[in-house]
Amino acid sequence: MSPADQLQQAAAVYAVIDIVIVLVSIAAAWWALQQVRWEAFLKDPASPRSKWLMVMLAAVVGYQFARFILDYMAWSSQLDGFF
C-alpha cells in the first residue's frame, strides 16, 4: 500500500469516527432535552412544529458538543510533541 493510500485510509477512519461522535452527541442532546418542561415555553408541545423545534435544538446542541470533543481531541494530540 502506497503512502497516499495509507493517508487516504487514515482520513476515512477519522471521518467515520467524527460522524459517530456527532451522531452520539446529537442523540445524547435529544435524551437530555427530554427533561425540559416544554409546556412552559411552547403553546402546544405535542404539535409537529414543536417536535421539529426539539429535533433542531438537539442537532444544534449535539453538534456543538461534538465539535468541542473533536477539537479537544485534536488539540490534545497536537500537544504530544510539546512535552
Automatic annotation (TrEMBL):
Organism field: Candidatus Reconcilbacillus cellulovorans
InterPro entries according to UniProt: DUF1146 (IPR009526)
Keyword annotations from UniProtKB, A to Z: Membrane, Transmembrane, Transmembrane helix
Regions crossing the membrane: 12-32, 52-70
Keyword Membrane among UniProt keywords: yes
Entry protein name: DUF1146 domain-containing protein
UniProt entry tagged with the keyword Transmembrane: yes
Domain of life (superkingdom): Bacteria
Pfam families, A to Z: DUF1146
